Structure formats: structure tokens, C-alpha cells
Amino acid sequence: MHLLLGRSGRLALYVGLWSLVGAVLALLLVGQTGLGWSGALLLALPLASLYSSVCTSAWYVARTTPLNTSGVPRLLATALGAALLSSTALMLAARVWSFIVRQWFRVDATFDAIGSTVFAFGVIIYLLSLAVSYVVAASERAQAAERRALEVQVLSREAELRSLRAQIDPHFLFNSLHSISALTTANPAGARRMSLLLGDFLRQSLKFGAEERIPLERELMLAQKYLEIEQVRYGDRLKVEVHNDGAGACLVPSLLLQPLVENAVTHGVAHLLDGGTVRVSASRTPSRVSVVVESPYDPDRPKRKGTGVGLANVRSRLRATYGPDAALETIDENNHWRVEMTLPATES
Predict the structure, then answer these.
(1) Alpha helix (H) ranges present in the chain?
(2) Do 194 and 100 have their domain in common?
(3) Phi-psi region of 278 (alpha: psi -120 to 50; beta: other; left: phi over 0)
(4) Is residue 51 part of a domain?
(5) Rounded-to-integer distance, Cα 306 and Cα 141, Å
(6) CB of 293 within 8 A of CB of 135?
(7) DSSP per position, 206-245
(8) Would the pLDDT of 90 be above 90?
(9) Could you report how far apart the first and last alpha carbons of the chain are, in Å?
(10) Do residue 62 and residue 108 come from a single domain?
(11) Whether residues 195 and 337 fall in one domain
């Protein structure tokens, strides 16, 4: 929807401004042609009123060629092309209107006398309208960014609470404590190790969850701690590989990987008799960061109700934080579950 149609006050302000534009055009005609004020206003005000509707197209031009994604040649070509085309339409209207005024109102105003002034005026006014449209579009983007920032804060807190609930989930704690209890007799050293890992994991989760964004290397470290706890439980059935190819300094939303690695274990390796390997790898290009989590799974295992909540949470946080600049893709092939997350590479 056009900006002017959003509020009635904007339309009234627009009409008022174009009345002033018509007065300026009349002033130019008086200076250029020697017309009286009455004749100049009779020529200028209807033309300004008509051109005001033409200049509303500048809003759509600014939307289709945004400053942040369009190159300078395209911006200049689009702006000049639209200005010249619009001004040509104004000049044709001026030819018709000047004939009507001369015949009906006996005003001595020929098109030859006013044509060049009207054309130059039309080009300048359209470019000004386009500039204003870009300023308004930039303001809207800034407001949208502020709204997204607020959404990020809310979703970040929700994700923190959801992650903490997942970490203190009855199943997770029950299984961990049950494993610790079983190990106290058979493997006291393993029970002690699992207790320490569990405490360290919860402490780090609370620490990182309080921050909106943290370096990716911390996210990978927390994911590895979680997987180490699971390794105590599953033993040799669970193997872990974590790789970081130069992406550690990039900032990501805190606790973003937790749902992904948890899914890889609980819906993958945990249901395989021979176990498998959970791989977490991070890499970057100059502008993008890619994080991949993959693990095998049992295709014959009945699907559990609730699978996919973690993925939905991660998608929501990515969308609120980065908009369309981030993506989460799931791939299922050869009995392997793979999630690839891409987002902008930012270090500060």
C-alpha cells in the first residue's frame, strides 16, 4: 500500500505541499514569460495537481530499486529515466492545458513560451520526490529494524527459558541422574565425571543464555559439553566430531545450537544399536557463516510426537534476528539427518 494511503493526514499534507509547488511554478512562469499572476496560477495549479499524482510513482521506484542493494549505475539510470518520462508526460499535459487556457480564458500563454520551464521544473520536482521517498523508505527500514530488535529480545529470552527448560527437562535430568546412579557402583569415576560435566554444562548455559549474542566458538564449546555428557551415558555408541574452520569469532544468537545437537542425539544416535557419530562443523566466507549438524538415525523408528519444536524455535530466532539474510535447511538422505544453518558473518 502506498505511504499516502496509510493515513488521511498524510494525504492532506501532500495536497498542501503541492499547492506550494504550484505557486512556485507560477512564480517561475511569471519570471520567464511575463504573465500576470492570475494567468500564471491558472496555468500552474492544475498542472501541479496533475503532476502530484504522477510523482506518487516515485514511492514505488524507491521500493523497487533500494539504495542498499542497487548499484549506483542502476540507481542513476532508474532515477533519470523515471524523471524524464514523468516530465515528458507533464510537458504534454502543459501543451494541451496551455491551448485550453489560451482559447477559453484568453490568457496569452503559448506552449513554446512555457514548455522548457515546465519540463525542467518537472525533472527537478520528480527527483526531489524520489529523494523524499528514499528518505521515508530508510526511516521505515530503521523502524522495522527496531521492531525486529525488540522481537529478538523477546525471542532471545523465550529461547533462553526454553533452552533451560530443555536442559532441566525431566527426561534429560532423569536420564542423567539415573546414569550417574548406575555408574556409582560400576564406575564411580564415570559417575563423578558425569556429575561434574552436568554441573559445568548448566553453569555455562546460564552464563551464555544471559547474553544476546556470543562468539560461535562458545556455542560450539557448549554443544561439545552437552555431547560429552551424552557420551558418558551412551558410551562408545556416541561419537562426536566438532570442527571450526575460521568461524569462531563470528557472533551468533546465544544457545542457538543447543536444540540442534539435542535433536541429533535424542532423535538419532540414541535409537541406533550400533550408535553413530554426531558431527558439528562451522565454516565461513567473508560474508557468510555456515553451521552444519548431522547424525545417523533409524528410519524404522516411529516418529515421536513433538519432533521439530527445536527447529521451529531456531528458525524463529533466525528470522527475527536476520530477516531473510539467514536460513535453516534440513536434509534427509541415506538415513542421515543433516541441518545446515547459514547467517551473516559479523564479529562486532
Answers:
(1) 8-33, 37-55, 57-64, 72-104, 111-167, 170-186, 188-209, 216-234, 258-266, 309-322
(2) no
(3) beta
(4) yes
(5) 36
(6) no
(7) HHHHTSSEEEHHHHHHHHHHHHHHHHHHHGGGEEEEEEEE
(8) no
(9) 36
(10) yes
(11) yes
Pair 141, 189 in one domain: no
Q: Running DSSP on this structure, what letter comes out for residue 146?
A: H
Whether residue 216 lies inside any domain: the answer is yes
Q: What angle do CA 310, 314, 318 make, to 5 degrees?
A: 170
Please check whether residue 282 is in contact with residue 243, taking contact to mean a CB–CB distance below 8 angstroms: yes
C-alpha cell at position 321: 534476528
pLDDT tens digits for range 298-329: 887 766 554 456 788 788 888 878 888 999 99
Domain that holds residue 316: 168-344
Same-domain status, 140 and 286: no
| Contact call for residues 124 and 55 (beta carbons, < 8 A) | no
Does the pTM of the predicted model rise above 0.70? no
Domain-embedded: residue 157 = no
Which cell goes with 333? 538422505
